[in-house]
Amino acid sequence: MKTKRLLPVFLGAAMVAFTACEEEITSTEIDENVQSVTEGTETSSVDSEENVEEEMELNSADFTVTIENVVTPKPIFESGVFAVPMGKSEPAPLFPGEAYEFEINAGPHVLPGDGGTRLSFVTMFVQSNDLFYAPNEEGIALYDENDLPICGDGPVDITDQIYLWDAGTEVNEKTGGPNQKPQQAPEAMDQGEEENGVVTRITDNSCSFGNVLPENNDVIKVTIELIAPARFKVRIKNVSDSNTIAVPAMGKDARAAVPISPGVYAVHTIPAPFFVEGEVASGAGLIGSTSGVEDVAEDGFLDDLLMDTKAATGLIVPLSPGVWAIHKDGDMPLYEKGMADFGEGLEGIAEDGSIAMLSESLMNKEELMQYGIFNTPVGASEAGPIGPGNSYQFSFTAEEGYNLSIASMFAQSNDWFYGFKPEGLPLFKDGEAMYGDMTGYVYLFDAGTEADEHPGAGLTQVIRQGNPNTGPEDPNYTVRIVNGDEFDNIPATSHVIKITIESE
C-alpha cells in the first residue's frame, strides 16, 4: 500500500500572527475612509452647462474587486542535490576522505507556528542492497527553542543525528554480494530480489541478513555551519577506510571502504519529507515519491527523487491588507517606477503590511475620486493577511477616464508589494467597463526601502523580524519591478495573486 502524508492546507491563526501592524484600523473605517472628490472651478454659466452635459455623457459603472491568494501550499521550502565531490567537476560517489558540500537558506520558521525549519537528506550506504543514511523523520532542527541557529559559534558536528536505514525494497545479501552496487554495472538498477518490506532503522549494526555493519561515525561525518544570516553550509564527508566493513562475499578476510552516493536534501517544517518508518518506501512521506527513495537506496540514482522533491517544493506567500485608490488616467498616486518612495506610507505596506500611514495620506490627496482599504478577509470578522484560498473584496463606483491603483505586500519579502503599473488599471476600455481576470496587469514591485534577503528566510522580513521597520536600507532606493533572477524561489505572480473585477 502506498501511503502519503499530505500537507495540511489549513494554515489558520498561525498564518495571521503578524497581523500586518494594522494599528486598530477596522473594516468599518473603510467606509469612513472612502472619499468622493468633486473637482471644478468658477466658470461662466455657458461653460457650466457644457461641463454638466459632458459629465452626463460619461460612462459610469459599479465595480467589485476581488483579490485572492492562489498559492498552492507545498510542504518543502527548499530542496536540491549533493552530487559532485569537492575538488571534482562531475557527479560521483564519495570515497574515503572526500566530501560533498551544499548551502541552504532557512530562517527560524517559514510561517508563524510552523514548528521551525529542519534539514533532511537521503544518501546510499553503497556496500549494501538498499541501505541509506538519513536523519529521523523530523529532520535536523536548524534553530533552537530560542530561534537561535544551532551552529552560531562555528561548525557543529551533527553526525549523531544521522541514522542508517533499510528501505525494505530489496532482499539483503551477504556484504559484497552480486546485487549490491559495487558489483553491478554503473548504469544497472533494480537488479536484486524484491523484498516488499517497510523502512526500518538499523539499530544493532546488523541488517536482516545478519551482516555486521560499522558504526555510523566510522563511515559518515556531517557538519553544519552558519555562513551568513539564515544561510547554512552542510558538509557530508566519507570517513571510512579500506578496513571499515567486512565483505565476506568477496573472500573470507576481505574488507573494504564504504562509498556514499549522491543524495537529495530538503528544508521543511513538517516531519517525514522522504519516508515514514514502518511504511513502504514507495509513496511515503510529504514528497510521496513512487520510486525515488528506492532508487537512491539501491543504486544511488537521484533523478526520480529529485523530480518529485522539486514538485513538492515552493514558497507559501501570505498577502497583506492594502489600499486602493480611484484616480484620473495619468496620475500616479501611490508610487512612480524608477523614483524613490514618496514617503507617504507605501514603505509601511511593502515592509510590514501596515496600511495606517498610507491610508491617512490618501485622505489628503484631493485629486482622488475615491480611496479605501482592504484588510478583512472575506468571511472573517477580524482584519489580517490572507493565506492560500482566502480573499479580500471591495466595491466602488467610477466613471470613464479613471483608473484603479492598489498595493498589497508580498509577505515573504523585505519590501515587495503587488500592484498595477504606477498609472493604475484603466476601468474602461472603448467605452465599456472592465471586467474579468486582471491578474495579467499585476506586477511585483520592490519598494527600494529595505535591502532584500532570501524570500521566506530573511530575518528582517515581517514574519521573522522582532520589530517593524528593522532591516538595513536598500542601496537601490528606487521603486522597481522585482528581478525574478535574483532569487530562485520567487513564484510567478499568477501563482500567488489573482485579481478579478465585476462591473455593472
Question: Would you kindly provide a brief summary of this structure?
Answer:
With 504 residues, the protein is of the alpha+beta class.
Counting structural domains, the number is 2
Indicate the CATH class of the largest domain.
Answer: Mainly Beta
- Which regions have little confidence, pLDDT < 50, spanning 5+ residues? 1-17, 19-50, 52-56
CATH fold label of the largest domain: Immunoglobulin-like
Question: Whole-number average pLDDT?
Answer: 89
> What is the number of beta strands?
26
The backbone outline, from C-alpha atoms, is elongated
Features:
alpha+beta, single chain, 504 residues, 26 strands, 27% strand, seven-stranded antiparallel beta sheet, 2 domains, elongated, Immunoglobulin-like, disordered N terminus, 7 helices
Secondary-structure blueprint of this entry?
Blueprint: H1 12-15, H2 28-33, H3 45-57, E1 60-69, E2 76-82, E3 99-105, E4 118-125, E5 131-134, E6 140-141, E7 156-157, E8 163-166, E9 200-201, E10 220-228, E11 231-238, E12 245-246, E13 255-256, E14 260-268, H4 292-299, H5 303-311, E15 319-328, H6 346-352, H7 356-363, E16 370-374, E17 391-399, E18 402-410, E19 416-419, E20 425-426, E21 428-429, E22 432-433, E23 436-437, E24 443-446, E25 480-481, E26 497-503
Antiparallel strand pairs: 1-17, 1-26, 2-14, 3-11, 4-5, 4-6, 4-14, 5-8, 7-10, 8-9, 10-11, 12-13, 15-16, 15-18, 18-19, 18-20, 19-24, 21-22, 23-26, 24-25
Helix pairs in contact: 4-5
